[in-house]
Amino acid sequence: MKKYIILASVLFALSCGEKELDLLPLDRVTADTFYKTRGDFDGAIFASYSSIQDLWGISAETLGENGEYWKISVVISDDAEADTEVGDAVSQDIDKLLIRSSDVPYGAAYTQIYEGIYRANLVLENLEGENELSEEDKTIIGAEAKFLRGWFHFQALKMFGTPPLAIEVKTDLNDLALPNATQEELYASILGDFADAAAGLPEEWDGSNTGRATSWAAKSYIGKVNVWKEDWPTAITALEDVVLRGPYMLMPEYSNNFSHLFENNAESIFEIQFGGPFSDDNIWVFDDTHSENFKASQGTTRSYHWGAANGAPGGKRGWFIPSEDLLNAYEPGDARLETTIYQEGEDYYVWSANSVVTEPYDPEWSSNGLSAKKYLGKENAVGANRSPNGAADFNNERWFRFAELKLLYAEALIQGGGDVGLAFDEIDDIRERAGLGPVDRSLDPMDVLMQEKRVELALEPHRYFDIARWGIGAEIFGGAWDDKYKVLPFPLTEIDRSKGLLQQNPGY
User: What's this model's pTM, rounded to 2 decimal places?
Assistant: First the structure.
């Protein structure tokens, strides 16, 4: 752990252009000697951000893992499926809702989440010691650490329902396990952390700190968390504040949100930063294994694949593919479809052999005749966005977009007895960008909202968690659904380590 934090500090110093580094050898660095300067604390903060990169793009170079979070957030949904010819066995089981606590994805996600929380807690604990920080520095760094701790706990709550609440650094090796927290405890802690973050973070950072959390991002998460909590009045107030007074706007073109040319754009509330030899354009580009986006190398169309890929250019083809059900969810004329799904005859772009290859898309390249296009396409099939071996890219992942926030605001208005006409207005704003007309306001507003959210956020990691909280699993999955799937299983390894202190979710 200390090694990663020191690495973070070194990278921070280098990114700031410092010529000389006077660092103690790793075997002589302790908390007493490290947590002193603003650079030290920035490095430790970036280590927590790094866990977000690893959560999204866990690689085979860590624990034999391959895009595990993608499996339990996207493949598990009705938007995507595991390619039956190149997808691994666990992916194909998850696609069928065969969910086992012993499978790698649950332990992988759990580990990365609590690693990120631990790193944030280390920062908060050491802020109280002797250091060179000004009071302003302490306020900002403390607020940022709380944003990250709240962010990770929120991901754990969405996945596991009643995960442990970790708000301190435990050092007794005989007392490391934590019990399940109640949802009331989790919501109180998460919202408290985001409130402190909103109060202490800047509204924006300078260009050398691109991608760090802002007060507006924290305010946005307060709204989103309250939607999950079903505290509709509080959600409406928080989301309305961001909609009316925040710095965000819808990008002119839907495709702008997924192009490497428009990272950290005006629609992006929070995105996972990636970078590498060609695009070190932000300050937390490193992760614990690689700086590229492994989602691209292991989950989507232009993926690296060991072996033939039914003739796909460069042998590159995704493990996870859009479902036919998702394809059929789009209305005629919806411009978002062209950005999201490759279909027969479209120009297919791939970076192969150090050049862009263009061929008509062939349905034989996929087990259902479709392939993912979001984050891919012409703009991203370029060397400036590729790792040297062409296997992965450096494009950021837009985790929370303003379009989603507007739809959350619409949902809160509908569910909370607010102005339904205003909710339809928010939905129509997003439809207008997609080239579609206003919705029929005689329809059930929640049906409209759920449909619009699905196609707007297709193949982004939200759909399954929406299905679970909306209680529509049986409607979507039919007889394969069991209400226990509203939450995922705690990893069996964690149950065993805790000696029963951590209780498994019912039914697993």
Answer: 0.90
